[in-house]
Specification:
Serine Threonine Protein Phosphatase 5, Tetratricopeptide repeat, disordered C terminus, globular, disordered N terminus
Length: about 325
């Protein structure tokens, strides 16, 4: 007799998709999603929506915020009127993740606040995202409150997320210890996206303290991780940070743009010329809006211009520091 060929049920496929995504097993998740889509006629509403969320998770990591909003909109259109808090919370979390990847912490914080209150299971997985968004927009107390509500884990994946969240919200004297503890957890089992984000956060923290060589090492590792995953939004963000701690700034040399800008000043001037506010620039570069304002004042002094509106007339295409 030939052995029977068993295929997983739609419900089991949904569970396997979610687990693969939470473990950063994105290739495996993609295979499971394709399997679920091929059998979509057999799936009930809940399982079909779970596949929408799985696709949204991959798209959020890869930086397709528009498609994430469209797909999670379908989920919310069902979940909210039917009172399915878990589906709604997962949809809001993925919207927040997508917004973080594209450099929009305000939208990320709104979605995370909207969806995660009262849902401790999802909050535990989203705690580092919540902390990152809240700190970026100056709501440190919100990040701390979410971290306090998250379930404390002595080890494992949730532990490494909580350590990153704690590092982002910690006092100066504790932050580095917490970042290093999160990276030590990464040695137990690789989670490429989670670990790249920790290195990105730690590298940005080091860069703000002018520990340039250490910052470049962490940021370069993060960059390699994001590139390998096709995480375009995250790759762009870490590239900007790497350029800001490039060789010219490290050696004290000025840039080759004719104005005497440092790499950081030229970078900030370019963003300001595009119409970004100081707070938006600060988020992209891991700086406070006051620090951005200070750099812009140096730009104004070096060029003799008097307002942001005049930045567009500057030649900001000087040679970039290679990464």
């Amino acid at each position: 007799m030939r052995p029977e060929h068993h295929t997983p049920s739609a419900a089991l496929l949904s569970a396997l998709q979610a687990n693969a995504l939470l473990l950063d097993l994105f290739d495996q998740a993609g295979q499971l999603i394709r399997m679920a889509l091929a059998r979509s006629a057999e799936a009930g509403v809940a399982d079909a929506l779970a596949t929408e969320l799985a696709l949204s998770h991959l798209l959020a990591i890869r930086g397709d915020q528009t498609e994430v909003w469209r797909r999670t909109g379908r989920v919310l259109a069902f979940a909210v009127p039917h009172g399915d808090g878990l589906l709604a919370a997962r949809a809001r979390w993925l919207r927040g993740l997508a917004a973080l990847g594209t450099g929009d912490p305000e939208s990320a914080l709104h979605e995370l606040r909207e969806g995660l209150s009262g849902h401790p299971a999802v909050t535990a997985w989203a705690v580092a995202d919540f902390a990152e968004a809240a700190v970026a927009v100056g709501c440190q107390e919100v990040a701390g409150a979410v971290l306090a509500r998250a379930r404390r884990q002595p080890y494992g994946i949730l532990r490494r997320l909580e350590l990153r969240a704690a590092a982002l919200t910690a006092e100066e004297c504790d932050a580095e210890r917490l970042f290093l503890a999160a990276l030590q957890e990464a040695d137990t089992a690789a989670m490429p996206f989670t670990d790249a984000r920790t290195r990105f956060a730690y590298g940005s923290w080091l860069a703000r303290r002018r520990r340039t060589a250490a910052a470049r090492s962490q940021l370069a590792c993060a960059h390699r991780g994001f590139v390998a995953l096709g995480a375009d939004g995250w790759t762009g963000r870490v590239t900007a940070e790497l350029q800001a701690v490039g060789a010219g700034e490290l050696s004290g040399e000025v840039s080759m743009d004719g104005y005497g800008f440092t790499p950081r000043e030229r970078q900030i001037a370019g963003f300001a010329a595009q119409g970004l506010s100081n707070r938006e620039i600060g988020w992209r570069l891991g700086l406070s809006h006051r620090t951005v304002g200070s750099h812009l004042s140096h730009v104004f002094q070096k060029t003799g211009i008097a307002s942001r509106a005049e930045l567009g007339a500057l030649d900001l295409t000087g040679e970039e520091v290679p990464v």
